[in-house]
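Re: your question from the hallway

Yes, I did run it. Sequences:
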Amino acid sequence: MGGPTWLTAIFAAASLAVAVYCTGRLVAARRWHRPTELDTDGAHVVMGVATAGMLVAGLRTLPSAIWEVVFAAAAAWFGYRMLQARRGAQPSPWRSSHPLPHLVECAAMVFMFLILPASVAAGATAGGMAVAMTATESRFSFLTLPLALFLFGYVVWLGDRVTLHAPALALATAPAGSGSPGSPGSPGPEPARPYLAPRCAAICKITMGITMGYMLILML
Amino acid sequence: MSESLAAGHAVARPAPGRAATADAAGIAALDPRRKLQLALGVIWVLDGILQYQPSMFTKSFPDMLAESAHGNPAVIATPITWSANLIDHHVVVLNTLFATIQLALGLGIAWRPTLRLALAASVAWSLAVWWLGEGFGGILAGTASPVNGAPGPVILYAILAVLLWPANRDPDAPSVAERVIGRRPAQAVWLVLWGSLAAFALLPASRAPGAISDTLSDGASGAPAWLAWIDTHAASALNHHGLAASIVLAILLALVAVAVYLPAPALRAAVVLAVVLAAALWLAQGMGALFTGMATDPQSGPLLALLALAFWPALSQPTLARAAAPAEEA
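Structure:
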């Protein structure tokens, strides 16, 4: 990417750490039957890998086109979840209760992959992403700043809540067959279990928000 | 963290029924002051990330700082030049430190246990940067103009930190700022700030025939096409009309300044006008040159708007209580 190599490497390491940690959350949630937002953690696993690849050329795994499809699908999922929430669907501790920020994150990923220069996207350069790409070169430059500001707003919003310690809704009993991987088709309500490491999950979201915001700012 | 987990304690002290509703929706009811604090936090986070831009790790950054010494008295300019030289010699380390401090200020404001510490630190940081990074906004150099960001964006962070401090000196005051520091001090801050902007608009740096149009043209350089179009057209429209434009701007700013002593409806109109002026100034500033890769902050426009919103006269607590009483009786 455009910044000093060590700085982009730090951001890449942070996003990979998020990916690894969220993978661990998915495994732990299944093993210990502790609620976690499966869709959010899953999205952060792929997001962490994809952003690391954008930041450091050596960490690229898949072509841009595939990532675009992956994040478009994820955006569609969170969009669907948002519609469900608006229709008053019962919230589940296993799904994101606030899908809008994740919808925007996925849309931002699609946006960033779309405006990457083709040579960089194909991995033809060694220096990482977006070295020559600025907003003035893109027809969609007006999106970059609002996306970055939204993500920073989300980061701050999460920061405001990270101190809160009343796991009210996630402690609520999960409805039967609500999608808990540990209790498929269980006949009655699952006993209340504490949400899996909520503050760590918030820190993951904050880390991803800052990293993606950094990438968007570099594209300004 | 599941946002749904965290609703209850974000509510200041709402009625039980309201808190339950907020919990159920998973949305914390933040009071207006907390919302403004979080908005300030967002701007600090943006500042921090802007400071991580590649150009900030080059000689361009200390050169930009050194420019602010020009025209200032020696007692002001010498420390600016000294600090710019110091940064020039250790630009990578110091810039990383600066960026991280600003990011930490933003996150510190967001995280409630460190709110006071972060606000206090932001005042100290802002005052230092106002001097060593912005040369007091060109006030002493005679180059201050509201169109180019006078009195210096960074001093606005300090003012906002004071106005949004978590205290209630006058709990019944209608606006956030007045509740925090008291009605008269808050009114004085508003009057001095907007009044000084009006005065700056009449200085030669603003009223010279090509002053405002030149600033607009500068804002267009490096900006994306849509913003460059706005600034270029505005610059050509105002070309050779600098005096008239600066007088109109000064009148509008003066109206905003005195409106703080008017009744609430007039003050609301003035706050709206202030936000509109802040947006216009921000566009004139090329949105703080955010698109050039050389911006260290979003310039004064967003901060002026935020500051104006801190003076929005909401209904006072007694008025709210009177309004609620008939409903309860019914």
